[in-house]
Design a protein that fits this description.
- The protein has 3 helices and 7 strands.
- Strands 1, 2, 3, 4, 5, 6 and 7 form a 7-stranded antiparallel beta sheet that branches.
- α2 crosses α3.
- The protein is 39% helix and 32% strand.
- With 150 residues, the chain is of the alpha+beta class.
- It has 2 domains: 28 residues; 119 residues, START domain (Alpha-D-Glucose-1,6-Bisphosphate, Chain A, domain 4).
Length: 150
């Protein structure tokens, strides 16, 4: 009887573990799912495109979110090179578009990748709250840039 109970118990534990591996196997670890393409978040600011681009670049450099931050004023883009830390690397891209005489829209993409034995896999680390915090920091820097221009 004890042998049967042990066998059934081992079977159920193995079934539960295999179900967990199947459920979370594509995630690497809980909370960081594998993505097929990077997420893009948007925010609108009451400022000219040039000021927004300059503010985004300043935030990326101050917070060390990207290396070799470059601004392309002609195409309304801010790009950074990858920042590598252990098995992770992060790169930030922002597209800015002037909506009207006083508003600009920012499309922000933070690419985070995990190095695996198969190569780099795109992962999600930032949630909406972190993007909102990022946009708030950019807004504060926009006010600094606007004060500097005037």
């Amino acid at each position: 009887m004890k042998k049967i109970f042990t066998s059934v118990f081992v079977f159920f534990v193995a079934a539960i573990l295999s179900a967990c591996v199947q459920q979370f196997g594509s995630m690497g670890f809980i909370g960081s799912p594998v993505l097929s393409e990077p997420e893009e978040h948007r925010h609108v600011y009451e400022a000219k495109e040039k000021i927004v681009l300059t503010a985004i670049a300043a935030v990326l450099e101050e917070k060390k979110i990207g290396k070799n931050v470059s601004i392309d004023f002609a195409n309304g883009r801010v790009n950074s090179d990858y920042v590598v830390s252990d098995n992770w690397r992060t790169k930030t891209t922002a597209h800015v578009r002037q909506l009207n005489w006083k508003e600009s829209e920012v499309r922000l993409t933070v690419v985070t990748e995990l190095q695996t034995k198969d190569g780099w896999q795109l992962r999600r680390l930032l949630k909406k709250e972190q993007y909102d915090s990022f946009f708030y920091t950019i807004e504060l820097k926009i006010y600094d840039e606007m004060a500097r221009v005037q």
